[in-house]
């Protein structure tokens, strides 16, 4: 099990494929598994690996809360698809070996010609990258909003929920679903841009209507 070397293009492609039908490394909420892989990646993946880039930007938004996320960090090789060999240890050993120069280098300093060529290629790459259209990662959410009791004004509760406006948030259809003892919950759909709106923000703002709302849960989470 593993992703391979997440500093390499091959490792990032494995991560991108792994996240093509998942929102997080493990489970349905951000956890220490995401933080472990996020730290191993170290930098935003290329724009063409949009599943990995969407996930990276989303986990980056939890930077200040990362210590409070659930779970316990495991070795990096414990995460990822089962059919990929864990090469993280081998990659580290190889790097350590490469750092030992037994004979010294004949080219201690980069030649002016090589330096100029490298800078030209970097400039060309940056130019091509800037012309690519940005991929906007979106998700469709189905939220369960539970009232306090059967006397809660559900029309007013839904009005409060829909009053929440944010860039990257669009509310959709809704319905009332019986949960027992005459109590009904509000089930409402919304579409969010992953880089702009997170489930933690939605929960914080919806439960702020404490006269009507007891709790909010994510019933379904699908990437678009």
Automatic annotation (TrEMBL):
SUPFAM superfamilies: eEF-1beta-like, GST C-terminal domain-like. GO terms for cellular component: cytosol; eukaryotic translation elongation factor 1 complex. Pfam families: EF-1_beta_acid, EF1_GNE. Keywords: Elongation factor, Protein biosynthesis. GO terms for molecular function: guanyl-nucleotide exchange factor activity; translation elongation factor activity. The keyword Ribonucleoprotein does not apply. Residues 138-224 form the Translation elongation factor EF1B beta/delta subunit guanine nucleotide exchange domain. Residues 95-112 have a biased composition (Acidic residues). It comes from the Eukaryota. Residues 102-129 form the Elongation factor 1 beta central acidic region eukaryote domain. Residues 83-115 are annotated as: Disordered. Belongs to the EF-1-beta/EF-1-delta family. Catalytic subunit of the guanine nucleotide exchange factor (GEF) (eEF1B subcomplex) of the eukaryotic elongation factor 1 complex (eEF1). Stimulates the exchange of GDP for GTP on elongation factor 1A (eEF1A), probably by displacing GDP from the nucleotide binding pocket in eEF1A. EF-1 is composed of 4 subunits: alpha, beta (alpha subunit of the eEF1B subcomplex), delta (beta subunit of the eEF1B subcomplex), and gamma (gamma subunit of the eEF1B subcomplex). Interacts with elongation factor EEF1A1. This is Elongation factor 1-beta. It comes from Piaya cayana.
């Amino acid at each position: 099990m593993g992703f391979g070397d997440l500093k390499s293009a091959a490792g990032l492609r494995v991560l991108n494929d792994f996240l093509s039908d998942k929102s997080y490394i493990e489970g349905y909420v951000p956890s220490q598994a995401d933080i472990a892989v996020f730290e191993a990646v170290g930098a935003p993946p290329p724009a063409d690996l949009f599943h990995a880039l969407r996930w990276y930007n989303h986990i980056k938004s939890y930077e200040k809360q990362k210590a409070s996320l659930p779970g316990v960090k495991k070795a990096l090789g414990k995460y990822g698809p089962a059919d990929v060999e864990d090469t993280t240890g081998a990659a580290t050993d190889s790097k350590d070996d490469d750092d030992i120069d037994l004979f010294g280098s004949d080219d201690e300093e980069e030649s002016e010609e090589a330096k100029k060529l490298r800078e030209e290629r970097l400039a060309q790459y940056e130019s091509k990258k800037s012309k690519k259209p940005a991929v906007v990662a979106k998700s469709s959410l189905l939220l369960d909003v539970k009232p306090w009791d059967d006397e809660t004004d559900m029309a007013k509760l839904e009005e409060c929920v829909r009053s929440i406006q944010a860039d990257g948030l669009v509310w959709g259809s809704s319905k009332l679903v019986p949960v027992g003892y005459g109590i009904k919950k509000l089930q409402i759909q919304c579409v969010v841009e992953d880089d702009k709106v997170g489930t933690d923000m939605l929960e914080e703002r919806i439960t702020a209507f404490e006269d009507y709302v007891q709790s909010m849960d994510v019933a379904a989470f699908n990437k678009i």
